[in-house]
Design a protein that fits this description.
By secondary structure, the chain is mainly alpha-helical. It has helices spanning 2-14, 39-54, 63-69, 74-86, 89-101, 109-120, 128-145, 181-201, 205-222, and strands spanning 20-22, 34-36. A two-stranded antiparallel ribbon has the order 1-2.
Length: 226
Amino acid sequence: EAVGRWFGNMQHVATVVGGVEVDLKSAEQPGAVYRVVPRARQEAALRFLAEQVFETPAWLSPREITSRIGPSNVVAQRQAGIVTALLSPARLGRLAESEGYDAAHAYPVAAYMTDLRRALFPAGVPDAGRRALQRVYVQRLEALIAPPPAPPAAPGAGGGGSGPPRYTPFVTAPSVPVSDLPALARAQLRALRRDAAARARGSSGTAQAHWEDLADRIGAILEPRG
């Protein structure tokens, strides 16, 4: 129950990143319908998640309790869920749309992806929980570069007729292969590969193996044919 409540709260914070407030109006009502959450608030949400999610929340697995019920990977699964949500095509698409809609308040998607990488890969030796999140991060970027094929549309999808499907601003996910997302994902992986190679040279044991593994994984993603 405690983990579930914590995860729900972290999901609420994650919605701020790429957030857009919608105030639906009738034709005669004045004012904007869509308002982009200010960049400073989105950056604050990412910093909060870096402290409360990316840092292993040991307080959710107190020894006096786990010694009675046994170890569990439920916290790790919830952490991975937040990282996955932060790199979802829908969220990244909202960030990209916000740049064109309200550049003064938007959080540019390129800047966001760099900030997210730095938050997940701080200086120091990563613990087991952090290493697992870093591997999830690489997997999610790979999914942006080579997204799975979209399922076939159901008969009658798109509101009927033979026209294109209906588009809703800030809600309809982008077509990843023709968007900027694969290029931005590759840029982050290239930067991370350089960083991982450098950290491997200054590490030993499990940490060194981890950094070498990340560099190898990224190489296979960026150059699948060797």
